[in-house]
């Protein structure tokens, strides 16, 4: 019983520390969120954030017209991001990696959000692909 209580206590502390180490970026429309490290600067009005050194940045959005389904994103995104390769494609998520329009490495992710979609693109410099993937995978629809 003591071991179980100790385990539950450790899990609770871990969750509290993890929550304190992040902050939320919300899309302009308010229906999509992404968690970023606590030391990032969040620009709430536009649904964006960037790292302290400004080498990594993310934008989260939910288009109000044009792209309203995951299928539309799957069809359109590869024609816009021609230097990206599709890395995940299912009924619940779509993800690409490569180089953004600006030429920086990126991870682009979309998920369904009711009658809309949530889209996040994170760009980075250097070898931060694992961190970038981890951040975009926190995206949730409200």
Your description of this structure?
Strand 1 and strand 2 (32-37) form a beta hairpin. The protein is α+β, with helices and mostly antiparallel strands and 142 residues long. It has a single domain, classed as Protein Transport Mog1p, Chain A, CATH 3.40.1000. The protein contains 3 helices and 10 strands; from the N terminus they run αβββββαββββαβ. Helix content is 27%, strand content 37%. It is globular and about 35 Å long. The chain has helices at residues 2-20, 70-80, 129-136; strands at residues 22-26, 32-37, 41-43, 48-50, 57-61, 84-89, 94-99, 105-113, 116-123, 140-141. The longest helix is centred in the first third of the chain and has 19 residues, at 2-20.
Short description:
With 142 residues, the chain is α+β, with helices and mostly antiparallel strands.
CATH classification, class level: Alpha Beta
- Strand runs, count: 10
Order of helices and strands: HEEEEEHEEEEHE
Give the C-alpha Rg: 17 Å
Let me know the largest β-sheet: 7 strands, antiparallel
- The percentage helix is 25-40%
Low-confidence stretches: 1-18
Provide the fold topology.
Layout: H1 2-20, E1 22-26, E2 32-37, E3 41-43, E4 48-50, E5 57-61, H2 70-80, E6 84-89, E7 94-99, E8 105-113, E9 116-123, H3 129-136, E10 140-141
Antiparallel strand pairs: 1-2, 2-10, 3-4, 4-5, 5-9, 6-7, 7-8, 8-9
List keywords for this structure.
142 residues, 7-stranded antiparallel β-sheet, 27% helix, Protein Transport Mog1p, Chain A
């Amino acid at each position: 019983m003591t071991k179980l209580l100790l385990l539950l206590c450790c899990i609770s502390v871990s969750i509290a520390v993890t929550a304190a180490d992040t902050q939320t970026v919300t899309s302009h429309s308010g229906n999509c969120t992404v968690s970023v490290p606590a030391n990032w600067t969040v620009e709430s009005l536009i649904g964006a954030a960037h790292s302290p050194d400004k080498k990594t940045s993310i934008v989260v959005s939910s288009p109000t017209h044009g792209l309203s389904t995951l299928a539309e994103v799957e069809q359109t995104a590869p024609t816009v991001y021609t230097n990206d390769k599709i890395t995940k494609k299912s009924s619940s998520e779509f993800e690409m990696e490569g180089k953004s329009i600006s030429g920086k490495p990126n991870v682009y992710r979309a998920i369904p959000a009711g009658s809309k979609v949530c889209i996040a693109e994170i760009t980075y410099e250097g070898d931060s692909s694992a961190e970038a993937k981890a951040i975009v995978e926190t995206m949730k629809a409200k």
